[in-house]
Amino acid sequence: MVHNEGEYPVVAESLVRRFGKITAVAGIDLRIGAGEIFGFLGPNGAGKSTTVRMLTTLLVPSEGRAEVAGHDVVTEAAAVRRAIGVALQDAAIDPLMTGRELIKLQATLHGIARSQWKSKSDELLELVGLAAAADRRVGTYSGGMKRRLDLALALVHAPQVLFLDEPTTGLDPNSRQAIWDEVRALNDAGTTVFLTTQYMEEADRLAGRIAIIDDGAIVAEGTPAVLKSQVGDPTLQVTLREGQDVVEAERVLLEFGEPVEVPAGYCAVRLKGGAGGVTGVVRALDEAGLGFDGFELHNPTLDDVFHRATGRRLEGTEPAEPEPEEVEASR
Question: What does pTM read for this prediction?
Fold first, then answer.
């Protein structure tokens, strides 16, 4: 294990976690650079939360080793906890206390002097947009407000590394955008962020580099742009008119690229040459006497990266409607 607190504040080597006969994390390797927003993307049950719990000392690895902020997560757990901030999706916040009271309590637990905690609480509440609600009981907060308060609590002691586990699950689009803005601002100020998410757009918008995990193993890693470029050509989806011969349309399109699975009534291919090939497709369909209502050209997405690696689609690839928060199962 390389001790390099400054350059790589999060390092994991062959990290494994088992629950009885179930292997939740199956030997992953990570090296996260200082000042990164690192996205850990995958469906529910893939092993994201289990990995975070090991890196934040809440679970002991079954095998392998990890260091955070230059400290071993098992033998130097206390030092790790002093160096990190953690906002978990299942965090418990006392509904009878106010936002300001909870920040004061957190500051006290971290040994921050009483003379400093008031200015610190004002600063953090302003940062997460809760200054106006600082003296309201948390039980009156919306889901998005509670997530932002949890973020503020994780920042009380100015952590070197911030772990965010599914920070926007179940939130409405406005609340999700607010969390994204705050994460970017923290990163701009120098905080290294480890972000787990099941939302493709979240990883794409925030992370400079991502790892995609499935069944406890990393199936792809790199910058979003590089990973998407590895998928290949963009997808051309054709909307056929009612009554058209789908099989014949698929045969025509196969001359222009590899087939892509789409819902009934559509045909799609990975279009060689990108947008420049659309004219040829239009001409070929017309010559075959096939009517169509429109085209859509889609560049590769992180969902396509996941599909290429696993043969399945990611959960959360479409914006989700607000729903009750769920905790990732035993993983």
Answer: 0.80
**Token output for 98:** 């106010």
| Per-position pLDDT tens, the chain of length 331 | 545 556 899 999 999 999 999 999 999 999 999 999 999 999 888 999 999 999 999 999 999 999 999 999 999 999 999 999 999 876 678 999 999 999 999 888 888 887 787 788 888 999 888 999 999 999 999 988 998 999 999 999 989 999 999 988 888 888 889 889 989 999 999 999 999 998 889 999 999 999 999 999 999 999 999 999 888 889 899 999 988 998 999 999 999 998 888 888 889 998 987 888 899 999 999 999 999 999 899 888 888 898 888 888 776 554 433 333 333 333 3
Q: Which domains does the chain have, with CATH numbers?
A: 10-227 (3.40.50.300), 233-299 (3.30.70.980)
Q: Calculate the CA dihedral of residues 296, 297, 300, 304 and round it to 10 degrees.
A: 30
